Amino acid sequence: MGIRFSVLSSGSTGNATIVETEDAKLLVDVGFSAKRMEQLLSERDVNAADIDGILVTHEHSDHIKGLGAFARKYDLPVYANEKTWEELNKQIGKIAEDKVKVMDTGEMKDFGSLKVASFGISHDAAEPVGYSFYHEEEKLSLATDLGYMSGKVKEAIIDSDVLVLESNHDVGMLRMGKYPWNIKRRILSDIGHLSNEAAGDALCELLSGDTKRVYLAHLSRDHNMMDLAKLTVNNILEEQGIRVQEKEVTLMDTFYDRPTMWDTISRK
């Protein structure tokens, strides 16, 4: 089976991703109410009761809105680092002590045949992380809510078979948009969000012979469009002499209102 995943929803209104192998099923973030999470999971024929645990990237509401209610309803363990837990405890209500799991940044944990490693990212949260998933020779990495693409993040996610990478905004649209300047400045900062241009620049260094698909994620509904994000990233790659088709890399869509189709990673 390899690694199978679906980005259930991605954007400023909420985020969640399901990742599974034949003997493990993990949820990354719960950015919606428990009812909406159940609906999203049902669209991919996933029974919430079968989930083995929830991995948390950081404590912002679009990633944890329904975390407490969902974890309590299905009696699920929740994994986050200590600083993130300090913030979660203020927001999500009581989680049973035996379900509170501390996963240090940089730590790797085994969930059956699925190995998961977290890595630190730059964002205005307590101790935000991304995750890489390993199964035999396969690798999937999720990296969103990035202020910038650091060397450590590149090291963590390079050689991924599939990469879910933030492409949050078009800089021109953001600068001309309706947000107050202090919000724009935050988004554009090193602890904000990765632009289309920055995503393209990062991919020039990240694409390897192993990388088959890149999902552009966490798009702003006000300051981006999927077609624009894909065009911008593709143009940057071509300017650097990297032709997406020749590299056999496909740029993939994510959606704020529905899941992506199941994607299976297998080198066999």
UniProtKB/TrEMBL annotation:
Lineage of the source organism?
Bacteria, Bacillati, Bacillota, Bacilli, Bacillales
What is this protein called in UniProt? Answer: MBL fold metallo-hydrolase
Per the record, what are the reactions this protein catalyses? 3',5'-cyclic UMP + H2O = UMP + H(+); 3',5'-cyclic CMP + H2O = CMP + H(+)
Question: What is the top-level taxon of the source organism?
Answer: Bacteria
Q: Identify the InterPro entries for this entry.
A: Metallo-B-lactamas, RibonucZ/Hydroxyglut_hydro, WalJ/YycJ-like
Report the source organism.
Paenibacillus gansuensis
Q: Which residues form the Metallo-beta-lactamase domain?
A: 13-218
Summary of the function given for this chain in its UniProt record = Counteracts the endogenous Pycsar antiviral defense system. Phosphodiesterase that enables metal-dependent hydrolysis of host cyclic nucleotide Pycsar defense signals such as cCMP and cUMP.
Q: Which Pfam families match?
A: Lactamase_B_2
